[in-house]
Structures are given as C-alpha cells and as structure tokens.
Amino acid sequence: MDVVYSWGRGEDGQLGLGDTSDQYRPVVVEALRERIVVQIACGSGHTVVLDDKGDVYTWGRGDDGRLGHGDNGWKFVPRLVESLQTKQIKQVTCGSYHTAAVTVSGELYTWGGGMYGKLGHGNEVGHSVPYLVETLSNLKVDQVACGSRHTVVLLQNSDVYTWGDKENGVSGQGDTDGHQYLPCAVEELKNKGIKQIAACGFHTAALKLYTFGEGKFGRLGHNNERNQIVAKVVDTLVASPIRQVACGGFHTAAVSDTGEVFTWGNGDHGKLGHNDQVKVTLPRAVDGLHGKRVVSVASYNEHTVALVDPVLAFRPLLLSSTYASDMQTLVDDPDFADVVFLAMFSSGMRESRELEVPVPSIRIPVFLALLEYVYNDVVAADMTAEMAIELYACADMYGLDRLKGLCEVLVQKGLVVDNAGVLLQAADELHASRLREICMHFIIRHFDYVTKTEGFHMLSRDLILETLQNR
C-alpha cells in the first residue's frame, strides 16, 4: 500500500501530522495510511491530496476557506472534503490561497480566496466549499493549474482558458489592466495542440512550449526579462520536443521526449542545477543529469526535483535482448525477453530449458506496458482509458494487484461520455468490481448523454437494465 510522507515547515499544520512542529526528516502521515494517494499538491500553508477512489483530502491553514470544509479553521490532520465525494475527481491542485479540482466528466470546482477573481465565478468573493465554475460547465476541462493570483485550465479540445490577475500579462489575454473575473480563451493558443499546462507565481507555460506573464529573471525563456502579455513559443526548444514543464516562483524547468532536463530563470540557491547561482534567460540543459532519463520534474520557489528512470541503460536489453533471458514471450508476432537472470541458465533449473510461452491474446503495446511496469515500476501517466483496462486484464492475469490499482486510476481519469459504455462492458467481463462501480456511477450521472453513444447500445441486456434500475 502506498504511504504518504511529509517534512519541512509545519507552522500551519500543513504536514498533516497533528501538530505545528517542523520536521527535519520524512514522517508518515498516519491519517492517510489506509488510503492510496495518487496526487499531492502544496499551497502556501495548506496541502491537498487525491486518492485512488477520487476522494479529496485537505489540511493546514484554512483562512479564506482554502481547505473546502465550510469554515476558515486550521486542520492539523487530513480531512475529507465531503462536498466532493460524489463528484469523481481526477485532478487536484492549489495556488497560494485557493484550491481547484477537475472531475472525470470535465467539470471544474474552485474554492478559497477570491481575490483578483482567480476562482472564476465572476467576482472576488471567496468560497469555503468547492464551487462549480459555471462558465465552463458546457466545456470539458482536462487539467487545471494555479498561480498565486490566477488560474489556468486546459480543455479536452486543447484550448486554454485563464482568469484572475492580469498584471504583467500573466493571463495571456494581451493586456495588463485590472482582473479577469470569468474564464477567457487564450486566443494565441487555439489550435496549437496544447498537451499540458503549468503555473506558479506570476507566469504560465503550455505545451507545445509557450510561456507568458512576468519575465523577470528570464523565467519565460525568451532571452530577455520582458513581460510577455500574449503566449509566445520558446524558440530554442522547438528542436527538442518537450513532454512536461513545471513552473517555479522565479524559474522554469522542462523535460524533453528523450529525458533531458532544461532549466532557466533565477539561479539563486542553485535551483537551476547548473552548479552556480547565475541567472539564465534561455533554456539550458542540466549537465549533471546527462546520460540519465528524467521522467518528470517539479519545482517551487527555491528548489527543483527530477525523477529519474533508474534502469535506462538496461531497458533495450530488458525489452528486446534474448541473451540471459529465462524465456521468450510471444505476443502476436514479435518476441520480447522476459526476466533477466543469467544464474538460471547455469543452475539446471527448469527455466533454463523453457523456450517460448505464447500469449496470443495480449496486444503488443499492452504487453510492453506490462513489462515497463514489471521492470521499472512505471505506468505511463498519459495512457488512454481503453489501453489501461487492457493492462488491467494483464495485471489480473498475473496477480499484480498494485498495477490493477494504478490502471483503475487511469481508467477513472480517462472516462468520458463516448467511452463509458465500452469500459463498463469490459469491467463487467473482467469481474473488476471497482472499475465496474466507477463506470456505472459515471453513466448514471451522465445518463442522458451516455445513452446516445454507440458504446451504450452495445452493452449487454443485463447491464442496460442495471443502469436503468440504478438511475
């Protein structure tokens, strides 16, 4: 079972350990020990997490209502945000004084301090419980990111909307006067195929890599310190396709498709990783990570963290070499080396005499994803719900319970009106009770839309009757 640890400053109870003490080493958050946490976000004095069932917990500083419990009180241990229990949340994040959550059906809820209009409700009124952003109710939100005074969302159609403070061009709307109280499309990013967004402090980034907002310290990566009031592509990274970007308070970090890390902006305290404290106004590769494949980066005001794939050097052998493998697994046509244990070949064990194990029912991409998990403990975060449920079937076949849990999270994240029927049928055939419950609940909540899809009409008679009875 996954365990959550926290450490550092505890003045506001943001560590979730029951008091306000600082911690100088990681300590288990006991209140979450029975939960499988899949996302964590930290604000200015408060923390928010999402578990594998779609429940949201918050704790820490509660002024402005940022915890979502209907009051402004501090909470020293994680507490369930009760008003979101029926919403099936797929993403949570927070700014300094506000918090946001996206549902699997594409709704956005915000709460906390309403200053600058950053909650998106048409005014500066704060909310102490999650409140639906009604302007976006007819659109489908995929991701949300929060800065100090603004909020950004990425829709499922790849459009980007911003609202809140306009100072320094952080909204990307082309001006710097006043505040944007309602979500407004960033015209410069329309039809650009944006895949991910990030925000922190007073600047914003969107992949394919565009940046806008305050340019101080060169954090936008345009070789100057000018503010950028409309989204502008980071030219020097066009030749290095970026897969993920993270915004710190005064710097930016990005990971390329090949696992290379680039950083730029304020270099104080060595947060750019260039072995100095020098300001950098153009993206620069972090030489200290050369030869390593970074899979993600995270940053805040004065530090940066990179998650590195530990077995990059061995991956080609693990997935394709037949040397020192105990057997070959046939999936469709190609063969892949399985577990690499040279000792087995010299031990006289039965494995040394096995030649092939056919597994014709598993598609090649799914089997590769299975091997990726077995060897690296990694599942692609952008995996589609349809592929995730196939991978779930593999995990069930081989008794990989943790992988089944990860697949459940991915299915829940990718569940939409168009695929709900197909996924429910698959979950039912797999006897996957948790997946079945997730899909059924989604269909009931969006019944009028799902019933018009081809996938719903392909459901078995028993499942159709069950949805009608549960409605």
UniProtKB/TrEMBL annotation:
Keywords: Repeat. Residues 340-413 form the BTB domain. RCC repeats lie at residues 2-53, 54-105, 106-157, 158-210, 207-258, 259-310. PROSITE patterns: RCC1_2, RCC1_3. Residues 4-308 form the RCC1-like domain. Gene3D superfamilies: 1.25.40.420, Potassium Channel Kv1.1, Chain A (3.30.710.10), Regulator of chromosome condensation 1/beta-lactamase-inhibitor protein II (2.130.10.30). The keyword Aminoacyl-tRNA synthetase does not apply. It comes from the Eukaryota. Residues 424-470 form the BACK domain. InterPro entries: BACK, BTB/POZ_dom, RCC1-like_dom, RCC1/BLIP-II, Reg_chr_condens, Signaling_Regulatory_Domain, SKP1/BTB/POZ_sf. This is BTB domain-containing protein. It comes from Aphanomyces astaci.
